[in-house]
């Protein structure tokens, strides 16, 4: 009897394969770390062929770890980080590294685009003009005579590259296409004016397809290595943000979903394509009837990692975070502006830089840790404010990602937002969203909405009385410092 489903999550820091039961319980999980290369200032690249191999190894390892016969696997679904770009030749070989979302080399092209067609393009695509997007990366390639760009037959994200290697198909789901900054958010197809601006044509891009699109037969060599049938169903899936929302909150529209891993995001479901006059938030398609509005931040758990390395802290990450318990709200006057990795929402400024303001000789590890946690959370709160009335209407926050495992941070989040926060039992929300798409695409489950009954929930944390007002006083100071220094 077929009883298990796998979500393959292609993240920035790792590739994860997670095997679930039909009701969302984790049967087995495995992870392959991915190295990012920072060869020049502003560059952030990964080896696409290493990621392909890591995806194969992750699937092999999760199957071996579970000790499950292939006959019991219902299917496998993809989740992927957005905004990567690879130049590919006619044979399907990578001509370039995968330029990932954190790459900032297209800063000048981004500024010039914002001064010309950028605002109009944003209104059509829902993708803010920023170095993260493949559109601005392509403009950089075009203007610098980047050799792989000149030789490329195709332009692909890392997920498209894997799909092409494994299935010989050139398709991309609506969410990944939206994240390029080149898809019309209303027609769900490529915008010819925008792709011409980038110096390419639609034949170089994959065909946008629904997230429940079933791929063809798997490459026989890979199928043999994995010991699975060539016709085992693989579903195209979606971007990690959309799937993290699906895997955390279902399709609930009266809630926010906050992801807080290395980076972070605040997201909310909407049933139509909408853009903001301020251009501070994105709106990406998931299905023709469901979109995600929100904003991403470059600076989530990476700021904790930075602090640990900077202090040469000998304890664990968990111990560093817990040390913040002994410091009061406001960290004894210490404010952290978390833009150590540039910033996307709400600033959309890759040249933004972080600061620790108010340093005193009396400050130590607890104050540093508290200030960093508060700075990360104040930034998420600013993104939430950019959502306006839609954000305010949310009654509950669902949280996922590595930071969500910290009870201290989740309480801080609840207090600053003044809303209850619901944790999920598993932090593999994107993988579970991908797995659920498999179940609905193959008729094992009736609808996407039914996932709400199959999300294993953890603790629900309520805001502490009086803490929100205290944090709003600190937040006002935080905002003034952002305006004065960034």
The profile of the biggest β sheet is: 7 strands, mixed
How do the strands of the widest beta sheet line up side by side?
Answer: 16-17-15-14-20-21-22
Strand content bin: 15-25%
* CA-CA gap between termini: 58 Å
What's the gyration radius in Å?
A: 22 Å
> On the 0-100 scale, what is the average pLDDT?
96
Low-confidence region ranges? none
Compute the number of helices. 17
Helix content: 25-40%
Shape: globular
Structural summary, described in words:
- With 486 residues, this protein is an alpha/beta fold.
- It is 36% helix and 21% strand.
- It is built from 17 helices and 22 strands.
- The protein has helices at residues 48-66, 107-114, 118-125, 134-143, 147-151, 158-167, 174-178, 192-197, 220-226, 240-249, 301-311, 317-323, 365-386, 389-392, 407-417, 429-441, 467-485, and strands spanning 4-10, 14-21, 26-33, 45-46, 73-80, 86-88, 98-99, 154-156, 171-173, 183-184, 189-190, 207-209, 234-239, 255-260, 264-270, 282-287, 290-297, 335-337, 355-357, 396-400, 421-424, 457-461.
- It has a seven-stranded mixed β-sheet with strand order 16-17-15-14-20-21-22, with helices on both faces. A five-stranded mixed β-sheet has the order 3-2-1-5-13, with helices on both faces. A two-stranded antiparallel sheet has the order 4-7.
- Helix 2 (107-114) crosses helix 4 (134-143) and helix 10 packs across helix 16.
- The radius of gyration is 22 Å and the shape is globular.
- The N and C termini lie far apart (58 Å).
């Amino acid at each position: 009897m077929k009883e298990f489903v796998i979500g393959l999550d292609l993240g920035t820091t790792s590739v994860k394969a997670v095997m679930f039961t039909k009701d969302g319980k984790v049967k087995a999980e495995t992870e392959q770390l991915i190295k990012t290369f920072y060869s020049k200032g502003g560059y952030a690249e990964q080896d696409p062929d290493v990621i392909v191999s890591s995806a194969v190894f992750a699937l092999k390892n999760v199957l071996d770890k579970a000790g499950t016969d292939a006959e019991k696997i219902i299917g496998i679904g993809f989740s992927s980080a957005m905004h990567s770009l690879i130049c590919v030749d006619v044979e399907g070989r990578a001509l370039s590294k995968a330029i990932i979302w954190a790459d900032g080399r297209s800063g000048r092209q981004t500024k010039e685009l914002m001064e010309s067609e950028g605002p109009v393009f944003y209104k059509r695509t829902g993708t803010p003009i920023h170095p993260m997007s493949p559109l601005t990366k392509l403009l950089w390639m075009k203007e610098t005579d980047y050799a792989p760009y000149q030789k490329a037959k195709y332009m692909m994200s890392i997920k498209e590259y894997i799909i092409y290697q494994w299935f010989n198909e050139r398709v991309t789901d609506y969410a990944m296409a939206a994240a390029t900054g080149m898809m019309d958010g209303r027609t769900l197809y490529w915008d010819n004016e925008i792709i011409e601006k980038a110096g390419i044509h639609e034949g170089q891009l994959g065909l946008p397809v629904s997230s429940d699109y079933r791929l063809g037969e798997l490459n026989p060599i890979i199928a043999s290595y994995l010991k699975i049938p060539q016709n085992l169903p693989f579903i195209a899936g979606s971007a990690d943000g959309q799937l993290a929302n699906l895997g955390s909150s279902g399709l609930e529209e009266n809630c926010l979903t906050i992801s807080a891993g290395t980076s972070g995001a605040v997201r909310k479901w909407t049933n139509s394509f909408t853009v903001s006059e301020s251009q501070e938030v994105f709106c990406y398609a998931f299905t023709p009837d469901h979109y995600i509005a929100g904003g991403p931040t470059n600076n989530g758990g990476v700021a904790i990692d930075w602090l640990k390395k900077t202090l040469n802290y000998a304890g664990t990450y968990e111990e560093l975070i817990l040390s913040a318990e002994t410091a009061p709200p406001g960290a004894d006057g210490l404010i952290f502006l978390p833009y150590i990795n540039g910033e996307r929402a709400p600033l959309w400024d890759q040249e933004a830089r972080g600061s620790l303001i108010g340093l005193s000789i009396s400050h130590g590890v607890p104050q540093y840790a508290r200030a960093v946690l508060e700075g990360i959370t104040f930034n998420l709160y600013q993104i939430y404010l950019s959502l306006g009335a839609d954000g305010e209407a949310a009654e509950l926050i669902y949280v996922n990602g590595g930071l969500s495992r910290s009870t201290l941070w989740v309480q801080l989040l609840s207090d600053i937002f003044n809303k209850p926060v619901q944790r999920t039992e598993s932090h593999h929300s994107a993988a579970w969203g991908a797995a659920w798409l498999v179940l609905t695409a193959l008729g094992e489950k009736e609808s996407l909405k039914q996932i709400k009954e199959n999300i294993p929930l953890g603790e629900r944390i309520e805001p502490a009385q009086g803490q929100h007002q205290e944090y709003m006083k600190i937040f006002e100071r935080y905002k003034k410092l952002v305006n004065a220094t960034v």
